[in-house]
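job 3f2a | input accepted
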Amino acid sequence: VEMDQSNSAYQHIGMMMQDESLMALANMEETYSDLYSKVAEHEDLKIDGLDDPKERRKIAKIVSVPWGYGSGWESCADDLDSFRRDNPERAKYLWTLEIRGINRLARTVIRVLESEFNTCVKYREIVKDVVESVEKSGQRDWIKFKTPSMFDMVIRKCALTDGDDSPRVEVWSGEKNVELVVKMPLGVQWYTEEQGQKSIQSAAPASLVHSMDASLIHLIVALGRFREIRVGDGLEMEWD
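job 3f2a | predicted structure (240 res):
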């Protein structure tokens, strides 16, 4: 089941942080709001050569979406480079840039996002502080919280087995413990103990937002129902 929920990261953060202005920008009011266009219209993105408003909005969106979930400028720059390779006809300005220029552009958009959506920055700081307090209490390998639909969400640090380059961990499948193997991309090193702790802190803000997405789908499926409605001379199914 595919559901396209616009600006979902910003919506969830706005609700969790009780920021009505962010919720309005994220299209949660009766009046339509295009968050990506608002970012694209920022003074810092009025760049010489970036004259196509559609490309400027697309650049703003490509960076805004992963940043909303906690990604840094490196991942956002990779996304910009991937977009221009896949859509050269829609990326005329991006093709005028070298890789360093792509990196600078990603950082510029993120600076705009940090200034315009300070609530998102505060949200990450609050979640990281909570994780840090859990770690200081002695629980350093994993953290757990309940989603709004009362499922347990666990973020854990995986350990490498001797002679292996893939982190492994045993998880409960509902019937028995099974070994989960996480395949790492070529050239990526798994975290040391110290880096792993930082990784849990970095992963938690995005995981919390994703858990809100999952809860929304779960509650819709659990509490909703299909019903028949008459359309013209026929019947169609509608979700209620």
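job 3f2a | The radius of gyration is 21 Å.
job 3f2a | closed
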